[in-house]
Amino acid sequence: MAECFHTKLITTSDRAKIEGAQHMEFHPETGLDTAKKILKMAIENFPNRRHNVAIPQYSQDGVVGFSHETINYLLGGLFRASYKPLNDNIINGRIRGVAGVVGCNNARTPHDQGHLEMVKELLRNDVIVLSTGCSAMACGKAGLLTPEAAKTYAGSGLAEVCETVGIPPVLHMGACVDNSRILIAATAMVKEGGLGDDISDLPAAGAAPEWMSEKALAIGQYFVASGVYTVFGTTWPTFGSEALTKHLFEEHEELYKGMWAFEQDPIKAASLMIAHIDKKRKALGLEKARERVLFDMAMRRALA
Question: Looking at the whole model, is its pTM more than 0.90?
């Protein structure tokens, strides 16, 4: 197999920095000990940093690390783990839909602003948010990863569900490379029934308001090809080609059932996502809220 090599010119000052740095070998079997040593070295080196470093003088609680299995358990318990409560509350209108908001921070925008404005707009409209990576970190710093946040930021329907289940209105689903967890959850919703036969039928949308790398584009295309309407912000790389842009923004849906969209303003981008969610609700016959059904024990046993 051919190997690719990249060359880079290194100045004398750069070489001095490299040669003066401490290097540490990594071995999987001693990974934890190595991490502790690196952390200790970083702390000891902190006074030597040349630039002023602003460290916030406050902390923020957060409930993190959700996965498909965790959501399944929280919704149904140990013996009846199920996505049915989520699907039922989407069907009855308490939850309008689901949004995956992910991606990097981008130096072209004020730090975290795109993520937070979009997420808060979605929450106000009863859209539960699944988040990863930098977007999840932005939500964590803003206090959106606690169950109490639902009362402050979410619409009445979503807030009621979050309070009942004891979950935040934004579910932290891992690092930037864990986006497939969101698609696994979407697949589980389809399998549970009542919301169509394909991911593209779900009242759901995805977004990366501050994306900045080719990796984000690749992940976004994965979501689009899986049937998810996906909105990117900040900038878009294909505007130089009218034909390619039209293909991505207009023709992709016919091929993959998902489609790209672009909107710099995070509030307007959230509105695009909500409009798509409402379109899918209408296609499923869910445009009107339904009466809430309180299950007795006989009805609960019948679920099994």
Answer: no
